[in-house]
Amino acid sequence: MTDGFMSLNDSQLRAVTHDAGHLLIVAGPGTGKTHTLTHRIARVSRQLGFGQKALAITFTRKAAEELEERLGKYSPEARNKVFVGTFHGFCLAYLREHVEDINIAATDDLERLARQIWPDLPKRQMKKKLQSLLEHKTRDIGGPAPPELSAYNQILRANKLWDFDDLLLEAEKFLSGADKLEFAHVFVDEYQDINALQHALLKEFVRLGACLTAIGDPHQAIYSFRGADVSFFDRFTEDFKGAVILSLSDNYRSSPNLLKASGQIVVRETPLVSARAADIYSHGQLTVYEAPTDKAEAEYVVHQIEKMVGGTSMFSRDSGRVYATAPARRSFEDIAVLYRLNAQKMVLEEALGRHGVPYQTSGERPFAELEPVPGLIAFLKKWRDDGPLSAAIEKLLETIAGNPARFTGQKNIERFVRMSKRFNQVQEFLDYLVLQQPEDAIERRAENVNLLTLHAAKGLEFPVVFIVGCEQNLLPLSIGDMVSDSREERRLFYVGMTRAQEALFLTHARRRRLFGRSMFNPPSPYLGDIEHQLKEYDQAQPARRRKDKQKSGQLELTFARNPLLLKRESL
Amino acid sequence: MKFYADCHLHSCYSRATSKELNLEHLFYWAQLKGLQVVGSGDCVHPAWLKELKEKLEPVPGGEGLFRLKALHAGPMQDRVPAACIGEVRFMLTVEISSIYKRLDKVRKVHNVVFVPSFKAAEKLQARLEAIGNIKSDGRPILGLDSRDLLEVVLETDPLAYLIPAHIWTPWFAVLGSASGFDRVEDCFADLTKHIFAVETGLSSDPLMNWRLKQLDPFVLVSNSDAHSPAKLGREATVYDTELSYPAIYRALSDPRDKGLIGTVEFFPEEGKYHYDGHRACKTRLHPRETRKHKGLCPVCGKPVTVGVMARVEQLADRPEGEKPPRWRPYRNLIPLPEVIAEAKGVSSPDGKSVQELYHRLLAQLGNELFILQDAPLKQIEATGGDLLARGINCMREGKVDIAAGYDGEYGTVHLFSEEDRQKKEGQLTIFSASGGSAFGGRTSQ
Q: What is the rounded distance in angstroms from the CA atom of residue A394 to the CA atom of residue A385?
């Protein structure tokens, strides 16, 4: 395939062809981030010397697969010179060359071990302690450690287990003792969300002679709760000598200071949110809707979906619930419903399920931990050294057929088998499984409406996006001991908004039931930040005030029975 | 043996269906209507499948079909008039609604799936459960491509098959104007060869379907798509073969098999999507008029819902009246309660006096399909009066006046003028009293 440089604009071209040392590319939403990154990787890889390779690090496994696919299309030649994976994926592959037996602990294992450290704590508190311990491992490298950390590490080792971030820690140890690296160039996606440990790894790469390209958007940094630190973004030129910063949104070279300033804009000021809103509104498709309750909010979302899909059943058509005269433009996969907390999901699932709208949810747990996958993995481990994966899978299926009660969860068994087809060796497949993150747990077989947390929506785009629960106490989050950094919450909201390609719905409910109690939340302050004139107020109103707008008596009746239909059309 | 089959219908677990859609009522109404084979509908719905397994049993010598166990059939059997009593067999079926994007357009296609055993139904259930939600609606909505659905079906059992449902319905069909494809093979791609039958739906009859050469490889079937038991058998497929699943499968799939006799149909004008128009604007347009209005509704100015007649015309490549090689005869019928209501000059076929006469006719003459097609007019007159007999005769001769259905609105039938109703007794002598004409095509418009 050709270079396809024709498809690049000036700022993208400059980023792709930059030859002088380390580079940080600032790529806001809609600036063609992946497109630019792919072209840069392809170009740089083709210029590599004999025996040299490149390393491309993505935030999720899914993003890695996408990048691999695109690279293969642009330049199969470059594709073969690049290792594409997550930080963890790279470290596991790297360590396999140096360490014999690596067993990654599942969440269940970790909680079992943590019990030995805190025998008397209630489960929730114990989990919290464990969480902060794990976070510490990625954040405060070399700093003062919590007293339990060494006990925790000892127990882990005694059980011949590693936790997820041990992969990075160990890889960093090996790298710091190494004197050469096969990767001449390292690319890092989503640089705004890297943590101290990952940063330390990158430093080692550079020490060993690698040239670094990072790409990201500081306005979209949302993973500090996992130890990510957006300040690395601002410090790029200090950290890496001779580094240059290019911005895709602007056609000029930003100074580090300017960048810092724009990094702060999103922190306090609102032009970003309203600029994005203006952008969306210019297509005429920004809708704000206030519902009396969370149930009504969910009902509204489902109804909008039914309308966009043009009715999901004869009934929804014939009853007048949905009455469209043009063919549907949307199907289920075009639509995402985003929320701040997984706890908000239930009422949405209930409404979608009741109306028979197919949906899929972002995983709260990685695939490897879903029933009955741990059992399947344990089975495969026994066959690790015994021939190809396909033979092991066959034996596994025989075992399941012989004892169906032992493995329940047809759906996940089928998916397990399907996934296995991409691998030849048992260990390859096991490594792949262990690296699966909760975000990867979505699988596309049939089309579904996507239910995702705002965090899980990172990096994805949809023609239509609903953000539900645009309320104080949820956005920004402040419920009980769940309080989040307000700047990060604002960025999270920004990330959610920027997932929408064509239509964005921001909904909130006056009354909501969450964690077993009622909340009365005013609208999120972020809604107020969107300039008033941009908003199409989209509210339920009494039937009589709408009457003049209706043309047929029959429809009027239907509308009167369905208060949700009384809203003003904004699409 | 000759038998009538109606295999596309729904249980009470589908949305917007009657609570009475249970096995007992299906068993009862099948006999009243004159059906020997009825579909179970909804056979992958967990609660319904459980009920099916509990209440149905295999029939010796009738492989792949099931009958209601005596324990459940007994109480209902007592309510069936002696003149209507007949065998009833159940076939495991389910309609699936697929909504998905193909070639940048949203497609919404309904398909009916048939399986020969509970084992196959459970297998299908497991496969579909892994793909989507099958619990909230007896007719599940899946984001699954029709072609991929067919693949899943074919993997379920060698005798499992799929029939595209009411293929002309604008919003939910393989050839639908607003949801489908221009060719059946565009929908099922490499697996099209596994499709051997298509369902005409209420708004089209074989005469219309014959106009498309692309449909020549398929036989035409008809079913009621009933959402309440009384609607059972309003359309049906007629077989003359062994009463078993493999025999039905052969009759549909094997071009040399003579087991498929034909279909009984609505007058297509009575269907909900025959003409074009807008229900909300009360605009009913003949395709000719639609063209005059450039496809826009004269009331609201938006594009009209294009009905079946126009859509057939759009895709047709054979002149009207010419028959394809594998054509089967068919008959247009009007549901008996509607004919009674028309004769009585009342608007609702559900009214008490209509229903009373309806059940009296069933008790004295036999099942509805027999009354509509074959009962001697004299006998009909004796129980139902002269006007009714004349109405049935008009229907048999195709002399009906129907205000065609459009955009979801059923068509309305007129068999008599006010003048006709005024005329009293003694008219019947002008008819031949033979009745029971050969099973053949519609004789006039």
A: 15
Distance CA B380, CA B364 (A): 9
The whole-number average pLDDT for the span B408-430 is 70
Percent of chain A scoring above 70 in pLDDT? 80
The answer to whether residue A314 neighbours chain B at the CB level (below 8 Å) is yes
Query: Chain A residue with minimal CA distance to B225?
Result: A314
The contact set of B with A (CB < 8 A) is: 15-16, 97, 99-101, 105-108, 126, 129-133, 135-137, 139-145, 148, 171-172, 178-179, 272, 278-282, 297, 299-300, 302-305, 408
The amino acid sitting at B101 is: K
Q: How far is CA B119 from the centre of its chain?
A: 27
Contact predicate A28/A217, CB 8 Å:
yes
Structure tokens at A149: 């950390």
Give just the sign of the alpha carbon dihedral A388, A394, A400, A403. Answer: negative
Over residues A209-225, the mean pLDDT reads 90
CA dihedral B371, B373, B379, B383 (to 10 degrees): 40
Chain B residues close to A357, C-beta within 8 Å: 141
Q: Which positions ≥6 away from A331 have C-beta within 8 Å?
A: A309, A447, B99, B100, B101, B106, B107, B143
Task: Check the CA dihedral A425-A428-A432-A434 and report its sign.
Answer: positive
User: Which residues, listed in sequence order, are joined to residue A58 by a DSSP beta bridge?
Assistant: A86
What is the spatial distance between Cα A314 and Cα B23, in angstroms, rounded to a whole number? 23
Residue B17 DSSP one-character state: -
The residue with greater pLDDT, A62 or A550, is A62
For A122, A479, A507, B58, B92, the CA distances from B62, given in Å and listed in that order, are 62, 64, 57, 8, 14
Q: Which residue has the tokens 């972002």?
A: A362
pTM: 0.79
Cβ(B171)–Cβ(A310) under 8 Å?
Answer: yes
The pLDDT score that the predictor gives to residue A128 is 85
Query: Which of B401, B338, B395, B344 is closest to B372 using CA atoms?
Result: B395
Strand-strand pairing, B56-58 and B66-68: antiparallel
Nearest beta carbon to residue A554 from set B129, B131, B280 = B280
Give the distance from residue A26's alpha carbon to the nearest chain B alpha carbon, in angstroms. Answer: 32
Residues 6+ apart with CB under 8 A from A54: A41, A44, A45, A48, A81, A82, A83, A183, A184, A185, A186, A187
Instruction: Give the pair of three-digit tokens for residue A349.
Output: 């699932």
Amino acid at residue number B21: L
**Rounded Cα–Cα distance for residues A179 and A208 (Å):** 7
- Nearest residue to A466 (alpha-carbon basis) of A449, A448, A490, A442: A449
Give the residue from A217, A227, A347 showing the smallest Cα distance to A295: A347
Please name the member of B15, B106, B280 whose beta carbon is closest to the beta carbon of A356: B15
C-alpha angle A92-A93-A99 in degrees, rounded to nearest 5: 70
Q: Tell which of B123, B156, B279, B304 to mutate to test the A interface (max A CBs under 10 Å).
A: B279
Here the tokens at position A328 are 């549907």
Two tokens, residue B429: 């002598």
Per-residue pLDDT tens over the stretch B427-438: 444 444 343 333
**How many beta-carbon pairs below 8 A join chains A and B?**
115
**List of residues 6+ apart from A537 with CB closer than 8 A:** A288, A568
Close Cβ partners of B369 (under 8 Å, ≥ 6 residues apart): B4, B33, B34, B35, B233, B236, B264, B333
CB A247 within 8 A of CB A240: no
Q: Is the sign of the CA dihedral B213, B218, B219, B223 positive or negative?
A: negative
Q: Which residue has the tokens 């004999």?
A: A50
Banded model confidence at residue B444, pLDDT cuts 50, 70, 90: very low
Supply φ then ψ for residue A63, to 5 degrees. Answer: -65, -35
Q: Which two tokens stand for residue A490?
A: 């604002």
Token output for B236? 């049906």
